[in-house]
């Protein structure tokens, strides 16, 4: 009897051990894919990303997705590259589309093309807006997948337009109209101090990006496709900077350097009647503006246009093949039309594919709130955001030049010649 009990005990232990091993094997099979996401911890966007990760894991129990909120875009790329050099990079990350050349030069990422195997994969790969692919492909390969993408748009306060005797439903269409309307929209108190500027274009954070709204509409392209050459001293570029400087000199635009972060708040507080900012601020402005506002394309000079902006997904080279495949599966899932549509509704970013705009939720949202479609409608006129090799230092050279001109430290032509000289020095080895 004792022996039977002993044998049964051994059998039970063996079965438990087998189950334990099986359980451990199953646990080991779960692929972990941490990814860096450029936002400070908390806030509505982190909640949306967490929701996407949880929904994906429910549908794919073999994959554990861990979003790591890494701060601003600049902080996120520094953290991602530091981790890459230390041999512990994230499996994938959302980083600026303009970081592409930097990531290639650091040998930090793999092309996405290697994961595209089925006809369905190929159809997905070909489904994105062409304007967004300009900053996602180089050397015949696709390095980034568009996700958190945007363009710069113009927002205007319809009440301020009415007060100034302007048609609240007619935004400025040209540079000349912008200056003329901004003059009428500028308000001063009895001491002559400006209480409301006609127009505000931020020049901190991403000065080069906002400047591209002026260079693009003046028919100038700042860099070549290979990212090895820039044209900061092109007369059309200098003319665009002169226009921006002249708005300040005319007193219709705030003087000096204008903060990127506070520009939406200045709009809410009626300190600026027209602002330029990302379409990614649309939901924020819709939630916080206590007045009727309009959203329009950037006013044209020689042509219409705006740079695209925002972030792509990149897959890191040092992740294991299983992790890379799992990351690709998540990226494909989260950029599918229905989720791209929901993301656009929840944030104001542009949905990355035409198919997303055909989904019932986004169709309904667009018909009820037409401003949500302005950025999409601007895409056929959009150009790539400035991106080169050694991108951070090249854009810093341009940013420094822009701020020197806007603060009056240098005339526009001199500021752009100096920026060109520095960019040429930085890019010499890449030609």
Automatic annotation (TrEMBL):
Annotated Gene Ontology cellular component terms: periplasmic space
Subcellular localization, as worded in the UniProt entry: Periplasm
Keyword annotations: Signal
Keyword Signal (UniProt): yes
Signal sequence residues: 1-27
A Pfam family reported for this protein in Swiss-Prot or TrEMBL: SBP_bac_8
Family: Belongs to the bacterial solute-binding protein 1 family.
PANTHER family: ABC TRANSPORTER SUBSTRATE-BINDING PROTEIN (PTHR43649:SF30), ARABINOSE-BINDING PROTEIN-RELATED (PTHR43649)
Protein known as: ABC transporter substrate-binding protein
Species per Swiss-Prot/TrEMBL record: Ramlibacter algicola
